[in-house]
Amino acid sequence: MTTLSDVAARAGVSKATASRALNRPDLVAPGTVERVRAAAAELRFVPNRGAQHLARGRSGIVSVVVPTLQNSFFTPIIAGAQTRAESAGIHVTVAVHPLQDEAGAARFEHLAAQVDGLIVVAPRGDDELVRRACALKPGVLVDREIEAMPSVSADTAGAFAALVERLADEGHERVAFLNGPEMSWQSGQRTAAVQEAAARLGIEVVVIGPSPATFAAGVALADDVIATGATVALPYASDLGLGLLFELVSRGRARFGEADAARAAGSDEPPTTRHAIEVVGVPGAAAVDVDGEALGEAAMDHLLTMLGGGTPGSPQVRLPVPVAEQWAGPRGRA
Predict the structure, then answer these.
(1) Does 179 map to a domain?
(2) Is 266 in the same domain as 313?
């Protein structure tokens, strides 16, 4: 395997000069840089990325920090960040840190000491706690905004408002909104947007929750949703909606457009005597379709700019979010 020493010998320079010519060409005469690069190309020399980063006082590693691995929403964010990082020769690690208390902050500090930068998904931590943690290294928040901190978030609040408008146009007069986790920034944004849209349109929204964004939580909320008398349920997250739909179908209380699941479940009661509920935000129904990979890519672009000594043009970015007519399944559903 060709080494840096081989390149230096071929170019007729010292190993130190060859290293500077490849890694810090601004410190070497242009003619020497050209000669070293030509020698490297001729010998098919592949630089050691790790050694290059260490020479600059860096690890070449950044971390994507998520609060849990149980929520499928985070998976495409990680994938998008990794794709961008690989193109820049940066390695990505994934760490689980809820970042909700001082104990979590201490663990986070240990992680920060080992990486060059951080992409942080911390939906529920106190603002000051998150701010202090992200000040340890260059960091970008994902799907949350804190004043003066670089962030990339999805404008799901606007999309949820549009979805409420659509439900009103379809004739729904009462909507059950399944709220997300307590202290979640996005949950607060979506709840406010849903309530404002409903008030403007003259329909009623019954907020249920807060609840974790999980399938099991959706199952457990079925009685509460039925008790509202709502004709449609709008979940904060797809996993929550899937759990609710599963339970409603098992009871013969779900409605899929014109097809009433009471009949599909074998109920002897006519659909008109049983309150059937439509669930949106699940496969086969209209949903707020968040491109998680785009979130991860944009966040990594922000971080790479910061690691290069630059400042992101727009520190806080909100990506537009469409309402999908027929949502096929998880891509980055929040």
Answers:
(1) yes
(2) no
Q: Residues 45, 4: contact at Cβ < 8 Å?
A: yes
Tokens of 22: 């490849």
Residues 281 and 296 both lie in one domain: no
Tally the domains of the chain: 3
pLDDT (0 to 100) of residue 151: 93
For the chain, the straight-line distance linking the first and the last C-alpha, in angstroms and rounded, comes to: 47
How many CA atoms within 13 Å lie on the side-chain side of 260? 16
* Whether residue 239 sits in one domain with residue 311: no
Residue where the block lists tokens 């001082």:
102
- Per DSSP, the three-state class of 151 is strand
Domain extent, residue 266, equals 156-288
297 and 148 inside one domain: yes
Low-confidence residues of the chain: pLDDT under 70: 47-59, 256-274, 283, 313, 326-334
pLDDT at 266: 46
Residue 52 domain-assigned (yes or no): no
pLDDT of residue 168: 94
pLDDT at position 264: 40
Structural domain contains residue 333: no
Quick: pLDDT tens for 309-323: 877 767 889 999 988
Dist CA 38 CA 30 (whole Å)? 12
DSSP strands (E only) in the chain: 61-66, 91-96, 117-120, 139-142, 151-154, 174-178, 204-208, 232-235, 254-256, 259-260, 277-279, 287-288, 316-319, 323-324
Residue at 56 is within a domain: no
Question: Measured between alpha carbons, how far is 210 from 266 in angstroms, rounded to an integer?
Answer: 33
**Ramachandran angles phi, psi of 57, nearest 5°:** 80, 25
290: its two tokens: 């968040």
